[in-house]
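job 3f2a | input accepted
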Amino acid sequence: MAHLDVAQTARANKRKPLTTLLAAACLAAISWTPQARPTAAAEGPYVVNCFDPALGTVQETLAGDCEGAVVSDDEAARIKRERREKVRRMLEEPSEPRVEGRRLAGIGSGFFVAANGSLLTNNHVVDDCAVVSISPSAGEMVLARKIAFDQSADLALLRADLSPPAVAAFSTRARGRSAMGQASLVGYPNQGLVPLNPIVTAVEVVGRSRTVHNLPIIVLKGNIRAGNSGGPLLDSGGLVIGVVFAKINSVKVFETTGRTVRHEGYALSTDTVLGFLENQGVDYRTNATQVPQTRPQILSEARPYIAQVGCWK
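job 3f2a | predicted structure (313 res):
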């Protein structure tokens, strides 16, 4: 998952990707910077090491966002070491899919958009990868080719030699506008270990924004995690209304600016996504009918067209 880090800068003489431009926009809108990071004794939020006992993970969060136990720096370091070792052992198991001579450097989400094996994801998920793999939720891992990409919109089109069991349908009602309210993400969010099955996450569409490149962006509130990148944003009927690409790095924003921004993420709207697919000649599916579904139903229908995307180096 791309994190919007206000300290991020683009390399000279290169076209800035969408996530960098959003970070710059966030920074430009801020008129002051605190001289020092607040402490626990100061008024307002501060940063803590938050331990999630259910997942066995620890991460830096704003104090008000910690729903687990606050631990010391030493304890946090120990938990992270043990987690890394567990992940390493898991990836070395012979039963796990592997690419000979390569290591799995990162994972993201993607979804099939055509019956010829075309899959859509974020460009940052597959950028600079020596090998890209696709693991459908109901099938074996296969290698994929990068057919096209748009760095400024952070989109990439992959293709694999397989017939997907299903193809996602885009909502025609969402093009040109953004319905506010409840929505869902389906993908492979990082929860401390490499997720083996897709997970549905409840989010709320709270608005629209635009970047320097004038691309329409959907603003989300919810528990968006690394690994959701490239996955679909679905409306209450399970139709695609966007593609997730980034989340706010709450800790970095607070440490740099003093502003509190919690649980905020971003998705590309269908205006941008369908324009990209049309430019590549992809025969995508659309649907104008919206039949409300429960989240278990949304996950069940999305499973056949969702895939985990692996970056191997």
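job 3f2a | The mean pLDDT is 79.
job 3f2a | closed
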